[in-house]
Predict the structure of NAD(P)H-binding protein.
Amino acid sequence: MHILFIGYGKTSRRVAKQLFEQGHQISTISQSPKTDSFATHLIQDVHQLDLTAVPPIDWVYVLLSPKQSTVEGYQQTYLDSVQPIVAALKQHPVKRIMVVSSTRGYGQDSGEIVDDETKIHPNDAQGKILQQMEQAYFTAYPEQSTIIRPSGIYGTSVARLQKMAASMTCYPNLHWSNRIHIEDLSRFLSHMIHVEHPESSYIVTDNQPKLLHEILQWFQQQLGLPLLQVESEQVTGKKLYATRMQKMGFELEHPDCYEDYLGVMRKNNPS
């Protein structure tokens, strides 16, 4: 199959490489030059996408991410790109379009359990934009669209968490957080090419919700720092469960984030 990646970052590259190794032809769209030899790379602005000179495309992955998490950044990257993408693909025999969205569209923020059967209820403007983007793809490709909603992607750096751990002596509340390792997300996305009758959407998370202050305390222990105190029992965040992913029998290779955090820390400080 000829597979097109619209947006080509860390996750796309991993998926593209796996699919190339399975014998597929890979093309990519991005705004900066790419050098991977296993794909044909096109430099284009997605808002002026032109695919007339590209061989027939069978399968599409859309993995775009805004430079900034502002309302304007989300609007431009996620929503304003839908119509140009749909228009550019019109002449192609697209069997499936897999759009990577986010779990931000689930606005629950009091420790609720959220799974694939939970309705999307955004509680901020960015979440609403993601919901509108998803709906726009479903409208354009009612049969071919599959939405992938990953939780927080981790696995390449622990710098932000280490910085938080080093600077925080207290945390305001009990905040539930969720994550998926970049390798597991990439494997799931490439696995979807073998799924004959996919669902309309999938949450992708490791099914291990964790309180954020406990993660920060773990880092503080590793770094020999005093442990932060929690200021209140108020519960925020949500507990995500990838029920459809589980039902498929897809198995994670990175079920324990602490093991992976340790691995990254040791890699950065081999001594």
